[in-house]
Protein 1
Amino acid sequence: MDILWDAHVVAVRGLVRRTLLAVADVDDVVQGVFVTAWRRSTGLVDDPGSPGARAWLLAVATGHVQNANRAEQRRRAALRRFVAEVSVRDPGVTATPEVAVPETVGDPLSTLRAADQTLLRLWSSGMSTAELAVELSVSEAAVRQRLSRARKQLATALLAATKGGDGS
């Protein structure tokens, strides 16, 4: 497997770096490609330096990039919907979805506790509060309370990031 890595990591990393929306995820996607190769290494181990192995790895990398890009687009759309919802609820909030989540803001989720990040990611993927309660082994009321708190903290982080990002 080390031979496969040495022979093709530069090509795989280059493809991933050029096509991935979230640059911070490049190493994770590259690692995922080689984990897939390790799990399905039947024909690759025989001749890891072959052009066929490289083509297969690049095809797998393309699939991993597409999945990661779809996830990133869902995350960005969820953040925009959330900011729009906060703007409607609180007329004093002047942020719009286009302004609140510029590409340069970074990841406002990283300002939250790990448990709150997980909760918001699961919720933004479409899970209901009942499903979240089962997944997290807590009551549905606890999920609603934690979700409310996490969404408020995320709104605060988003607003702080946009105010800091436009020079005000």
Protein 2
Amino acid sequence: MTGERASHFRRKSRALAVQALYEMDIAGHPAESSFSWLVDENDVPKESLDYALELAKGVADRLVEIDQQIRQHAPLWPVNQLPVVDRNILRQAIMEICFVPNVPTKVVINEAIELAKTFGSESSPRFVNGVLGSLVDEAQRAGNGEIDSTMTEAENLIQEGN
């Protein structure tokens, strides 16, 4: 798959994942059923759906760890009091940054900011950028300065609960 094609399908996947995570968060539906109406209402390529489902399931499987990172990098904002859209954009981006190898961190952050502009409030893009920037800065300080490799340092921070 070419870089441009991968970029396009991942962009669509991220938007789908955030919408499904929103439904999962609000209604408590499992990942698979949260995607059913999205697929019915949109022309979704299989590769976009597969990646979106991987992200949503990954967030569900690692929710405690991911929310701990949100708490750490947005300490003035209790996770359950964040706007639902912002919370799920952050969850999706942290999942991808910390647990999905070979995805450029800058791309994930830029896409999260774009999702915040599309789905969030006026202040959402700045908030999302600040939280993700703090996560990346900490990972770089703790590691060797390479954030785009496999994010092992950020994953270690999450597992340690720092």
Protein 3
Amino acid sequence: MSTDLHHDPEPKNEPSDIGFDPELEQAVQKAEEVARQAEAAAPYTTPDAASEAQASSSQDPFPYESVPHFGNAPQPEEAQNSETQAPNYTAPQGYDPGAFGQQYYYQPYRPYYPPRYDVPPAGYPQKSRLAAGLLGILFGGLGVHNFYLGFQTKAIIQLLVTLIGSIFTCGASAAAMTIWGFVEGILILTASTPSSYLYDGKGVILRD
């Protein structure tokens, strides 16, 4: 079987005779003329602007769904949930919200005083009025009379100010506490009912 192929370096592909239709040629010329007129009437745009317009029209970088909602316009979910919310109930007729919990009254501070007993309880050792007055006059700077009557806080203050304060004030604080105790001793001896100097630290009246 022969496999030899004859190669023709110059293939003879001569075009066949094709007849041209005059009507077809006129139609082509008319279409080209219409295209030229349309191109001349259209506004001129640069290639870059045309490509940008085409890109923006084909793909919107900021679609409407991605833009956040501003203002008081309800969101779609909120509008849907508002239909399922409970109705707003109005207050009953004659209800005054200011009548409950809205009025504030100022209550001034009142220091606590123990109850006073004009008659001493049974078995209570009643303090002497004369002894308390003399202790205040003689040793008032050390607070001895207040220790005797049961006013511990006042007595400690007088004692500390007299002993420690006199070191820094060259004895001026001791003199002040002595005058304070002397005045209290006089008030205890000369007080009359219902003065607080007639009662001890527990509110029991002093005996004469």
